[in-house]
């Protein structure tokens, strides 16, 4: 919740500051542009599904923290963010369990 509530506010504040303004403004602009593009092409439910799949694919950098940070940039609602990230974490857990069990079966460890 802390990341969700304060990441966007920090960027909005930072964009007005002298030393970090360009840095924060860059990320704020990129996030808003990506959010508009994603919402336009897929709708609000598509953003929910895209975030769930992003968090659910177990690769480095695609976990819950990054998903919540992305959701705050996309300006998604708190409840939909929590639901989407939670389902993504469950999906990642299922994928890793299946892969682990297959590895045990194949290699007989």
Tag the structure with descriptive keywords.
mainly alpha, 109 residues
Written account of the structure:
The protein is an all-alpha fold. The protein has helices spanning 2-14, 21-56, 64-74, 78-107. Helix 2 packs across helix 3 and helix 3 packs antiparallel against helix 4 (78-107). It starts with a helix and ends with a helix. The model has no long low-confidence stretch (mean pLDDT 88).
Secondary structure layout:
Elements: H1 2-14, H2 21-56, H3 64-74, H4 78-107
Helix pairs in contact: 1-2, 1-3, 2-3, 2-4, 3-4
Short structural summary:
With 109 residues, the protein is mostly helical. The chain has helices at 2-14, 21-56, 64-74, 78-107.
Mean pLDDT: 88
Structural class label: mainly alpha
Radius of gyration (Å): 17 Å
Please mark out the parts with pLDDT under 50 across 5 or more consecutive residues, or reply none.
Answer: none
> With helices defined by DSSP (H or I, 4 residues minimum), what is the helix count?
4
């Amino acid at each position: 919740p802390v990341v969700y509530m304060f990441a966007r506010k920090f960027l909005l504040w930072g964009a007005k500051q002298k030393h970090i303004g360009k840095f924060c403004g860059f990320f704020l602009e990129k996030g808003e542009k990506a959010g508009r593009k994603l919402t336009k092409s897929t709708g609000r439910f598509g953003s929910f599904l895209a975030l769930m799949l992003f968090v659910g694919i177990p690769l480095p950098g695609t976990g819950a923290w990054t998903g919540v940070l992305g959701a705050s940039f996309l300006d998604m609602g708190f409840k939909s963010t929590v639901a989407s990230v939670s389902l993504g974490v469950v999906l990642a857990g299922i994928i890793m369990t299946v892969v682990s069990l297959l590895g045990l079966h194949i290699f007989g460890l």
